[in-house]
Hints:
GO molecular function, one term: catalytic activity
Helix content: 10-25%
InterPro entries: Fumarylacetoacetase_C_sf
Distance between the termini: 48 Å
Number of strands: 10
Mean pLDDT: 76
CATH topology: Fumarylacetoacetate hydrolase, domain 2
Shape: globular
Order of helices and strands: HEEEEHEHEEEEE
Amino acid sequence: MAEPDPMLLGAPGAQLTVRQDALDGGATRVGWKLGLGDREPIGGGPVVGYLTSQTVLSCGSRCSVTAHAVPRADVEVAVRFRRAVDPDGGADEVRAAVGGFTVALELCDLGGSDDPAAIVAANLFHRAVLFGPWTPGFPRPAARACAIVDGAVLAKAVFAGTSMVCCCARHGCWPPSAKGSEPETP
């Protein structure tokens, strides 16, 4: 195992201090996120960020990005665990622990420093997140997701076969059903 970069050792602590300040201010814990983008992996692997209710958007809400230097939206697949995962259990253990999954649209600001410690301390470019409806179980192989805003595909993601769409427009957010139903309204 490679030695950690001494320049990065303080970054997680700085990140967790900001998280704790949000929790102390009334935000609730939502979960964790993995940084897998081009500027996020540090030392050859993903890094971890946090999610709190402070940055969760409700379906149909608006979020200004005018203060963001380089605003971007990422389509993600989010999982909700129903129990703890044995760290030595492998992939089957993770699958068994997942209680549900959904599509998420994360708003990021890619402006600012390229310094790895600053990226971690600033919570991996995260600014806001919108979750679609939750589906029970673990995502099936080749699950795909895309975000459509006002009829235009904004971003796509493949999880690893069910196709899901999170549509964030005036009409709400939904995954299409097997019958191709209309969207749910907020």
